[in-house]
Amino acid sequence: MMIIDVESLKERINQLHIEHRDLDDVISRLSQSPAQDQLQLQRLKKRKLYLKDQIAMLERQLTPDIPA
After folding, report:
1. Terminal C-alpha separation, the chain
2. Residue 4 has pLDDT above 70, yes or no
3. How does 34-67 read in b/e, with b if 16+ C-beta sit within 10 Å?
């Protein structure tokens, strides 16, 4: 059985939320730029999606399984 350190998990989730929000700001600014770099925008959006998935996975670890 794996023991999860709830506080470190919450801290990691918080860090990921901050990075996700920062990426959102960068993507928003780059999208408004007339000389936008589509490849860079695509990479940033993929990173943002990856962070969202990581956050969801970690949050599921915080929620105990409910027996059916």
Report:
1. 20
2. no
3. eeeeeeeeeebeeebeebeeebeeeeeeeeeeee
pTM of the model: 0.80
Cα–Cα distance between 66 and 2 in angstroms, integer?
Answer: 17
Give the number of C-alpha atoms closer than 13 A to the C-alpha of residue 38, restricted to the C-beta side. 0
Is 53:60 a contact under the CB 8 Å cutoff?
no
Percentage of residues in the chain having pLDDT higher than 70: 88
